[in-house]
Amino acid sequence: MRCIIVGYGVQGKKRLTVAAGEAAGVVDPIWPEAQWKDVREVPPDRYDAAVVCTPDGPKTEILGYLASHGKHALTEKPLHAETDGELAALEAKARASGALLVTAYNHRFEPHYVRMRDLIASGELGRIYRCRMFYGNGTARLVRESAWRDQGAGVLPDLGSHLLDTANFWFGDLADDFRVISASCLENRAPDHVVIGSEGSKPKIELEMTLVSWRNHFTCDIFAEKGSAHIESLCKWGPSRFTRRTRVLPSGRPPEESVILVQDDPTWALEYAAFKALVASGARTDLSKDRWLLRTLGRLSDEVIKVSSLA
């Protein structure tokens, strides 16, 4: 599959490394070595698919162009649009042309995320009561100095989209009652520390995200009827640990099993391989989860901006 990389920032560079010999070139309006400045300049016979790594603003226009020409696309999260109808129209256009549009959530390919999904699906934990996730990095200064990132709802659409997608990956459809528990502008103009939660989802969910965790970190705690399961860190920040604890009745110290991984981040290559497999299988575009995320993040973004302005 021949692909082009649209947008040559941090993510674009990672995607080009993974695509390697399959990449037909780079589209970027600023990078001087780019083969093309605009996706419309690329001869259609030069590529089959695109990896879109642009800021949110131009994404749907670029994806619309690709879909209308039957070109498959893997686009960086979140799939931003002004309205739900815009995504519905994009989905219809892609289905009509046979183009597959997929939003990239590379954390779904994190080994311990897959391990957690499989454990939950097995039913061995029994009834799951609560899930709490924390995702933090130390990029507050970089975001503040960016020409386009320190605005709007700040950390929420960036890291919150990952956390909401992860909860969907593990538990399926979620409730529409997520609310803002806390939102702060600690160093930036836009919120850089946010906590959201849902009491209506099963299990109940709490998600915390921040740009002021100076050591990049991820944790997850799932508490259930027959024990608990925990993730500490991702492969890229390793070591990454998965721990399962089995409940002792009526009480007592639970036996536990741990798996520790020390390895490079495998998610980018695994995600690209999965995208190619979907294309080869003739999978159809389905943006239903993107539309749910758009609605949820849009509502929460308005709330985050309001709460942080009062803090």
CATH architecture of the largest domain: 2-Layer Sandwich
In CATH, the topology of the largest domain is named Dihydrodipicolinate Reductase, domain 2
Name the structural class: alpha/beta
Shape: globular
Give, in order, the helices and strands.
EHEEHEHEHEHHEEEEEEEHH
How are the strands ordered across the major sheet?
7-8-9-6-10-11-12-13
Rounded mean pLDDT is 95
Number of helices: 8
Give the distance, in angstroms, between the N- and C-terminal Cα atoms.
Answer: 50 Å
Q: Total number of β-strand segments?
A: 13
CATH class type of the largest domain? Alpha Beta
Name the assembly state: single chain
Beta fraction of the residues? 15-25%
Percent helix, as a range, is 25-40%
* Cα-based radius of gyration, to the nearest Å: 20 Å
Say which CATH homologous superfamily of the largest domain is assigned. Answer: Dihydrodipicolinate Reductase, domain 2
The major sheet is characterized as: 8 strands, mixed
**How many domain regions?**
2
Instruction: List segments where confidence is low: pLDDT < 50 over at least 5 consecutive residues.
Output: none
Structure write-up:
α1 (10-19) links the parallel β1 (3-6) and β2 (23-27). The chain is α/β, with parallel strands linked by helices and 311 residues long. The protein folds into two domains: 3-104, Rossmann fold; 108-269 and 297-310, Dihydrodipicolinate Reductase, domain 2 (2-Layer Sandwich). It has eight helices and 13 strands. α2 (59-68) runs parallel beside α3, α4 packs across α6 (155-171) and α6 (155-171) crosses α8. The longest helix is centred in the C-terminal third of the chain and has 23 residues, at 288-310. The strands form two sheets. It has an eight-stranded mixed β-sheet with strand order 7-8-9-6-10-11-12-13. Strands 2-1-3-4-5 form a five-stranded parallel β-sheet, with helices on both faces.
